[in-house]
Every structure is written in C-alpha cells, then in structure tokens.
Amino acid sequence: MEAEHYIVFDLERNFRPYQSDFPAEIVDMGAVKIDPQTMEIVDTFSAFVKPTAPLSKHTTKLTGIEKQDVKQAPRFRQVLAAFRSFIGSSYILVTWGKEDYEFLKEDCTRHGLDCPDMSKERRFDLQQFVFRAYEELFPNQPSLRLAVEQFGLEWQGEQHRALADAENTANIFLKAAAERDLKHAYRRSTDVVFIVEGALSEKGKRKLMRWIIKEMKKRKADHLTWKSFLRSKTWANAMEQHEFDEAAIAQLEANFAEALQNVKKLQQAKAKAQTAATPAP
C-alpha cells in the first residue's frame, strides 16, 4: 500500500501490576511523521491524556509521568481527534510490536469513539521486521532498548515516554529502510532458531508449546491433533515467520504429542491454583 506518510507511534498506559477495577487507560501518546519519498522526519506529535482513574504509582515509577502532568491534560476524546488530524487519511502506522494497536482500540471502544483505520495493510510491526530481517543481530525478539544498542544508535530521551519511544523506533525504522527492503517478507532460518544438531532445541519446544496454547485458546477446547494443528491459522502464521524444511516439520511432529501433554498439565495446575485461591462461600 502506498501512503503519504509513515506514522511511527507509541502509547503509555495508566496500569497496575495487580488485579484492579480501574481501567488501564492511555495517558501518553507520541508519534513521528516520516515522508516516504525522502525518508525524513517531517513532524512530531505528543500529548498527555487525562485518565478517568487516579494515576498509579507504578505508572509514575515506570514512565516518570506525574499526577500534575495529566491533571490538566485533555481527555482521550480530544487527544484522539488531534491524533487523527496529525496522521491524516493516507498513512501506514509503524509500531514496536502489536500491543499499541490493541491499547488504542480498547480506549476507542471504552469511550465509544471510532478508531483510526488500523487494518492489516495500514500496519507495520517493526519489532517483528527487524527480528526476521536481522537474524544475525537478534537470536531472540529484541526489546526497543536492545535494538537501539545493537544497531549502534544513541538512545533519545526518556525510556517509556511515548514520544521518546516513538523517536527511537523511528530511528531504527529509518536505518532498516536504508539497509533492507521494507516490502520483503523476510523469514528466519529454521536451523538457527529451532534445530540443533538435527533435533528440536529447547527453544523450539517452548515455541511449539506456545503455539499449542494459542490454538487451544482459540478453539476453547483441549482437543487438538497434529493434523488439525497443521490446518490452523496459528500454524499458517508460524510458516509466514519461519522457513520450515521437511526435517524441521518432522521434528515438530515428533514432539507434538509430548508438548500437548505438557500444555494440558500446565493448564490443570493453573486451574487447581485458581480454585485453591478462591475463597469458600
């Protein structure tokens, strides 16, 4: 998809690392606008958002955002309108990971507002791109901070502040655009990620278990076979990310039954722990 601008954006939320009735609302939005023709930064966007719930101490500790920063800030409705004006109608959103899309969607739903178009063709997950396109740099999916260091870039601003994180993401994006084809679907070598000396690595086994957990959640049932797994969207997504040869697929199949049993054991243990923690009536 051709677009007038790349919009690299980041969000920070008011959240609590414990169960709470308060919503984890967006309190900080930052974005960088890039001209695709010149690949230069042409504008930036930054705004605090006044949450409906008190700002948590955990949020302040992580981001440095204080209560006075958001006390006089506009509400989400006003900030979203300003953000939509900033991004325009022809854009591709660039983020570090997928979470911010869900966060933005949640707050739009919470406030009964229409979200900007975040359909698949308008999104670019830079974290996933560099993980695939720079296999020699990243044995594991990198954090934003690690990626900045590995690319030899200098960190800009305060970590976990929306505009600073967006600016650092934009710097990685510009470097990647100069060195790689942004439109190419890079895939990691299966031998490096999964197979060690002809056998499925421990990392490969953990990955297989995560795929099984993901697929079982989608099905809302524990009945899953290797054949049904091969027909799943979870497996289709895995094949988009990795290049599997016959030997790798054979190893995954050979380990599938054991991985499935391990997943079921974990789920049973989790259910027992939740039952034990529930107070008696």
From TrEMBL:
Gene Ontology molecular function: 3'-5'-RNA exonuclease activity; nucleic acid binding
UniProtKB keywords: Coiled coil, Exonuclease, Hydrolase, Nuclease
Domain Exonuclease: 5-182
Coiled coil: 242-276
PANTHER family on file: 3'-5' EXONUCLEASE ERI1-RELATED, 3'-5' EXORIBONUCLEASE 1-RELATED
Name used for this protein in its record: Exonuclease
Organism whose genome encodes this protein: Ectobacillus ponti
